Amino acid sequence: MKEVYPFEEVKKEMKDIVGNKGAQLGEMSSIGIPVPPGFVITTRSCVNYLKRKKIPDSLKKEILSAMKELEKKNKRKFGGSEKPLLVSIRSGAPVSMPGMMDTILNLGLNDKTVKGLARETGNEWFAYDTYRRFIQMFGSIVLGIEEKNFDNILEKVKKGEKAKTDQEISVAGLKKVVKEYKKIASIPEEPEEQLFMAVEAVFKSWNNKRARNYRKYQGLPDDVGTAVVVQTMVFGNLDDKSGTGVAFTRNPATGKKELYGEFLLNAQGEDIVSGKRTPQPVAALKKVFPKIYDELAKTAEKLEKHYRNMQDMEFTIQHGKLYILQTRTGKRTATAAIKIAVDMVGEKLITKKEALMRVTPDDIEKALHPIINPEEKYEVIAKGLDASPGAASGKIVFDPERASVLGRKGEKVILIREETTPDDIHGITASQGVLTARGGITSHAAVVARGLGKPCVSGCEGLVIDEEKGTCRIGKYTFKEGDMLTIDGSSGEVIKGEVSLVPPKFTKETDKLLSWADEVRKLGVRANTDTVEGAKLARKEGAEGIGLCRTERMFNAPDRLPIVREMILAENKKERMKALEKLLPLQKNDFKEILRAMHPLPVTIRLLDIPLHEFLPSTEEISRELSYLKEFDAAVSLLQEIPGISKVLDPKLHVYLPSVEKFIDELTNEKYHVLSKKLIEEKTAMLKKVRSLEEVNPMLGHRGVRLGITYPEIYDMQIRALYEASAELIKEGLEVHPELMVPQVCTAQELKWVFKRVRKISREVEKNYGIKVPLKFGTMIEVVRACMRAGKLSEIAEFFSFGTNDLSQATFSFSREDAEKKFLPLYTQRGILQDNPFSIIDRKGVGRLMSIAIEWGRKTRPDLKVGVCGEQGGEPNSIHIFYNIGVDYVSCSPFRVPVARLAAAQATLEGKKEVI
Amino acid sequence: MKEVYPFEEVKKEMKDIVGNKGAQLGEMSSIGIPVPPGFVITTRSCVNYLKRKKIPDSLKKEILSAMKELEKKNKRKFGGSEKPLLVSIRSGAPVSMPGMMDTILNLGLNDKTVKGLARETGNEWFAYDTYRRFIQMFGSIVLGIEEKNFDNILEKVKKGEKAKTDQEISVAGLKKVVKEYKKIASIPEEPEEQLFMAVEAVFKSWNNKRARNYRKYQGLPDDVGTAVVVQTMVFGNLDDKSGTGVAFTRNPATGKKELYGEFLLNAQGEDIVSGKRTPQPVAALKKVFPKIYDELAKTAEKLEKHYRNMQDMEFTIQHGKLYILQTRTGKRTATAAIKIAVDMVGEKLITKKEALMRVTPDDIEKALHPIINPEEKYEVIAKGLDASPGAASGKIVFDPERASVLGRKGEKVILIREETTPDDIHGITASQGVLTARGGITSHAAVVARGLGKPCVSGCEGLVIDEEKGTCRIGKYTFKEGDMLTIDGSSGEVIKGEVSLVPPKFTKETDKLLSWADEVRKLGVRANTDTVEGAKLARKEGAEGIGLCRTERMFNAPDRLPIVREMILAENKKERMKALEKLLPLQKNDFKEILRAMHPLPVTIRLLDIPLHEFLPSTEEISRELSYLKEFDAAVSLLQEIPGISKVLDPKLHVYLPSVEKFIDELTNEKYHVLSKKLIEEKTAMLKKVRSLEEVNPMLGHRGVRLGITYPEIYDMQIRALYEASAELIKEGLEVHPELMVPQVCTAQELKWVFKRVRKISREVEKNYGIKVPLKFGTMIEVVRACMRAGKLSEIAEFFSFGTNDLSQATFSFSREDAEKKFLPLYTQRGILQDNPFSIIDRKGVGRLMSIAIEWGRKTRPDLKVGVCGEQGGEPNSIHIFYNIGVDYVSCSPFRVPVARLAAAQATLEGKKEVI
Fold it and tell me: How far apart are CA A47 and CA A25, in angstroms?
């Protein structure tokens, strides 16, 4: 099989074997983009190499023959003493992994060819500077010699010549550097051997630590290998008419349509990527080389039209001529992704559907990244570049390892670095945001942060790190690890301490994209909330109703809890009814407010679900109070028994209490005694009640409809409150759609039992108000048995709403709280489970069960409405699964509603699949 | 539709509309049994009546026309002043409900006809005695007048005449009684009106409390209604050549083939049933009326041949002529049921299959009712009739209500009554056994106790109850409520105090029946046990292997627990391995012994299932010990600090400790201090560990294979122990069939993970021993997700064993412990659930889930072996369901194995049904 392809022979369909970069170069060549000639060695060769650790002779032969062709095209000679051919050797995997693998430039130089280069360019300084760069790169990457050894030599020579910058070194100095370099790095003189060794190094770099980490984080496969691109060198560092740069066809941070990027005059690409020199914005090129700027802008336009997506180009100017070294789909922030997708629809580059598929639900979530509360007052202590938008607060950390450890523990940290490197990825991932002293808007930190959707301020000149002391100065302040700091990547501001953050407003493009999602999707999106504020937010975020309103949260409000406790502690039904009568108007008002806020959208009210003991203090709490009370009581008794006690008390007490006598008199008054006795009695009764309510497995306990059947008067009160609330709103002229949902149902009898009461109460209320209430009656499906009885349940229930949290617990026999603490991490780590089933719905188990329940439920009632109100209802992978098994709507936290809207649209666009 | 049928027109197929009694009478007429003529009013009429509360005119017309026919047959006139026709009115439901509904005798008497009866019989006394009986019966049953009002009148007249018994009252006295009776009971003079009112009363009695209770207890439907049998009266109390009796065609207590029963001369049936007079055994009839005895014996034979079952006949002799009043399938004890079924096969009356279907699994269980330990010495304080076999001990209770309350609480009680009535049923049901002072072997107490399989001693003359004081004398002792008493219904003995009871040996008939069951059944029966003793018992009871051997019970043995705790408290894998190495030989020996005891039958070993904290003491326990230790330590410190402490110690101490000085010296020795410090440290560590292992929902916790994956070395040890045990036994020449079962599996990955280790260890062991171990690898199915993944699991598992306890908990989301305490009783009481799903498998939910799992499992592996090892595996209803859904074997407690064998045979005979 052919293993080496010149650019002209590469087709874009060959991406898997020539890699992304190779495919791009081939494609660019074919549409007339000025690309330096070159060829690609396939990913197959890499995979083979990694198996055998040896480049086979056949491959060497192919490479040499391709070199011959290259010599012809360039009219140059590889290893020649006149017009020597120099090449770059780069990695290029099928999926781009920027900066993760190795690159070697200027290959082909040796003691002989360097002279030819000097002669040809008439620039000996350039030739020897290029040579020493080559040796350094080859030495560190191919031969594994530490960079600092080279740096030491360079510094020594510079010192000797009193040169401040590299540019100031003399030609003799450079020659000396080369000589010294070659002492520590034995570079083969033979260019062909250099070539093979470099190719081998790139192959190997596929498996270096940072590449492996990157693939793990991105979920990329490990067995694909990288292709190697061998390309004619062009020199941005040839002279002052040369330079190199990186340009995006649109702004990757904001999505704005503009040529965006940066360049360095008289420099090679590595100088930009490494962040060692701070470059100029690409717009500055307009002044320096207006023609080249125009050519670059036209090329950008051409590339974008061709690829129908925003491009990230590397370019070099060699003595006034523009070369494009590579192009790829540009990484962008979530906000940019949305704007670009929407704009491109406007520009007729892509369709609405493509736009919807191009933005990920993750982008929507990231676009919701918090901003600093506009009402907040704060002190800006430094400014850097607005490298990746959004604001974040956290504790300062200087070490990526440390950031990773703390981040995994759930701590919020801000990583501060001189500049970041690919080795820091795990630290960036674990941080809330990144602040760097050096590097531009396309520096490593900036690129990675944008990819991860994390705020980044780069090139902050006010930041000085003292690694030894483990501190940093920012502006006039000194900070140490653990101090709080806030960064705003949208403004580049660095702020002392923590400031309050708020969710941002959607951009108009986001609103537009989501409105397209709404046009497309066939899966409804509702919100889970139980407050009026939540309901209002839900509407704002585009929810089509409330899918789960938990009534127990209303019971927990400070003005309700005493009444709820009164109800629980009641000794008999009569006392319980008294408490419930007090609750009825409050509960009715809750329902009215929420129904009013949502009208005319549906609101699903779930009857009381949680076990009663959750409304009472814990045994520990009561025991503690009880022992205080007893001590107090004993003290009062003691005081009563000792006449004239006030006189023997510590005289110091008189300082605080002008009249100790009076205080004692007061304290020993019988009423305190009576009071403490009464309290002790009450607390003792409560303790007894709490003990009687204790359960071995509360998750499988006395809750939901089981409670409703035990104490029918509680559900009666709730049902009546909902009917009366609805009736009163209808009287006001509002259209309301209340839905009543019974939790924890496992038999049809339970549902029938509640339904009978609903019918009785509805008749009473409807008669009283002279109004019909259009209430829907349904059941939560969160018990496995309910799935098995779905066909029977849907005889009564007009809708099902899957409680996927509890259903997952029951299906796995996992107690979420225990499992996540004890064995779930090990399970996902050992691959026993792919995902935590409480985050992403378990397709094969819980999904299958749901699918059966839906099928059986609809057999009895074809128009059965089916929703999901568990946590997974707002998670994109799960939303796809729910759509596929026939769910009608998902319901999630109001904040996740926009994410769910897009995910629902994407699921609809992909069409239903047989997933189980 | 016809609503009244004369006996001659009744076919036995008409049972549903003419009732059991009516059908029997019709059938008896047709085979030439001497039955007094009569007719039946259908159950339909009853159901209609209960709806409308009125007898329609059409029915009245039919009844009167049937009476006309009856007058012709008897050549008598209903309400005639000469030869008046008297009839009995009895209830007769499609399923016999003895004594539950009302009966009226002698109907047709009034002031006019009584004179005709006196003239005809020449016995004025008899006529008026019959008349006063009729008034009393009609008055109490139809008119609802309390019996004691009649009794008071009778007693007053008796007192006035100084008569000791009813028989001694004069004719004038009887006439006075009638006159007084009629003052309090206004009996209609018109016989037709009497008849309609009586029929109405019988209809109504279908819904009286005791009938409803009986139906509830027996699981009979409430909407069927009773038929009414109207039959010509014959008089057992006419003269001394008359009498009445009850006879069984075989002994209902033992099953022996003999005419068994009792009779009273010159008496009516009610005198026997009520237990007011103690009758003679039926054998005595041989002497008094040998011809009639022969006729009765022949009739018995005829009836048994006809019905192919043991019969319970009521007969009356009227002036030397035998009448059979009714016959029905005789109730019998479990032992009798088994013997009769097996004997009848021998007599070629029925087939083996019929015999198998005729005995209930309940009978097998009852036949296992305990007997008094033959080695026990005890004092017999009285003797009564051996009315229902078996022995029982319990606390004395005199009141059925009280017995019911205590019984439901789980207390063992013996109900002591003068005699029992149908109103006492709930008390008998709740007791361990019944002791009565009066009544024979067919008295109410005896019949009911035999039906329920409870021991009963009746007619115990040594028993005198003092209701006022709430005490009783038995022989020379006085007892009060709560005192312990033992009765032996097989010998009639009453024993003071509690004696130890043992399970009985099976009769040879039981063994035979079970061997037939084994021939027939296609469902295997195994036992759950984890001891050698259990294994031996299991074999004896007919188990075909061990279906569940729980290894954790072995870990709990006193010699293991310290090592197990060492393993749990180990700080690292190395320490844990050390403890496991100590456990390995012990565990191996466990397995060897059990495999040896069962060879060559299969033994299913389940890997460790329960969470580790169950092997550790509770936090409370450790905290307590810890505080003792700290106190001790403080005391030792104190003693060390006070020199010469021994001198100030309480001088009394010297009495107990001859040398206090030495004791103190000893105690204050540093080594104790060191020891207590060390213990405190250990306990503190243990407390910490226990706290770290605590779970919110232990039922859904870190157990089973989850534990195995977390600490692989534990399962490794167990797997190795099983392989080595098997290999060593095979070397000895034994055939063993070990089966390894993984608990709590919910994903195929878990099973694969264990399977890999099994393969590795098996290769090692098989290589070491040079032997192949024929081990089967399977999984417990007790997590719902495992059911959903059955098709994947059976790729690896060679067998499934359903853990129906945990599976039911997960399917219902019920924590059994909590549910049975908090809401399950209410659920069954309110009809939300028919049965406790932990006793009888829930067909519609859990059964359906199992059925899906079996189907999917067998799709992948057609020869997948499927067992059930949950508690429901030994319960007959559940066994039928398991057989129907394709289970291969059930496994239950060794004691329940015989029950399961019969239930399995019956399920097989009934054939598979679509049950879900």
Answer: 22
Residue A657, pLDDT score? 46
- ipTM at complex level: 0.76
Residue A301 binned pLDDT confidence (cut-offs 50, 70, 90):
very high
Pick the catalytic residue from B369, B426, B444, B880.
B444
**Which pair of structure tokens corresponds to residue A528?**
């889970």
- Write the pLDDT tens digit of every residue in B472-481: 999 899 999 9
Residue A894 has, within 13 A of its CA and on its CB side, a CA count of 18
Kindly report the CA angle at A711 between A706 and A713, in degrees rounded to 5? 125
Average pLDDT rounded to a whole number, residues B413-422 = 89
Among A707-711, B99-103, B408-412, where is mean pLDDT lowest?
Answer: B99-103
The verdict on a CB contact (< 8 Å) between A815 and B747 is no
The number of angstroms, rounded, from the C-alpha of A474 to the middle of its chain's C-alpha atoms is 28
Identify whether the C-beta of residue B432 lies closer than 8 Å to the C-beta of residue B485: no
Q: What is the pLDDT of residue A914?
A: 64
Residue B212 has pLDDT above 80, yes or no: yes
Q: How far apart are CA A556 and CA B534, in angstroms?
A: 53
Q: What is the 3-state secondary structure (H, E, C) of A340-392?
A: HHHHHHHCCCCCHHHHHHHCCHHHHHHHCCCEECCCCCCCEEEECEEEECCEE
CA distance B632 to B645: 16
Tokens 């400031």 belong to which residue?
A499
Query: A550 pairs with which residues across the strands?
Result: A606
Name the amino acid, one letter, at B810.
A
Residue A312 has pLDDT above 50, yes or no: yes
Cα A472 to Cα A278, A481, A740, A790, B836: the distances in Å are 21, 9, 58, 63, 69
Q: Which of residues 738-777 of A touch B (CB under 8 A)?
A: 744, 746-747, 749-750, 753
Residues 6+ apart with CB under 8 A from A334: A359, A362, A363, A364, A365, A366, A367, A369, A453
Cβ contacts (< 8 Å) between A614 and chain B: which residues? none
Q: From the candidates B697, B820, B830, B846, which should be mutated to test the interface with A, based on the most A CB atoms within 10 A?
A: B697
Least confident among B468-482, B627-641, B686-700: B627-641
Cα–Cα distance measured from residue A543 to residue A535, given in angstroms and rounded to the nearest whole number:
9
For the segment A65-71, the average pLDDT, to the nearest whole number, is 95
In chain A, which among 674-713 make CB contacts under 8 A with chain B? 695-702, 706, 709-710
B102 near B138, Cβ under 8 Å? no
Q: Can you list the positions of beta strands (E) in A389-522?
A: 391-397, 413-417, 433-436, 456-458, 463-466, 471-474, 477-480, 484-488, 493-496, 501-502
Q: How many Å apart are CA B219 and CA A342, to the nearest integer? A: 70
Task: Tell me which residue in A809, A846, A848 faces B700 most closely, judged by beta carbons.
Answer: A809
| A254-269 residues labelled b (16+ CB within 10 A) or e (exposed) | bbebebbbbbbbbbbb
Supply the pLDDT for residue B816: 87
- Measured distance CA(B208)–CA(B406) in Å, rounded: 25
What digits encode the pLDDT tens for the residues B875-913?
999 999 999 999 999 999 888 899 999 999 999 999 877
Residue with token string 């040809």: A120
A744·B784 Cβ contact <8 A: no
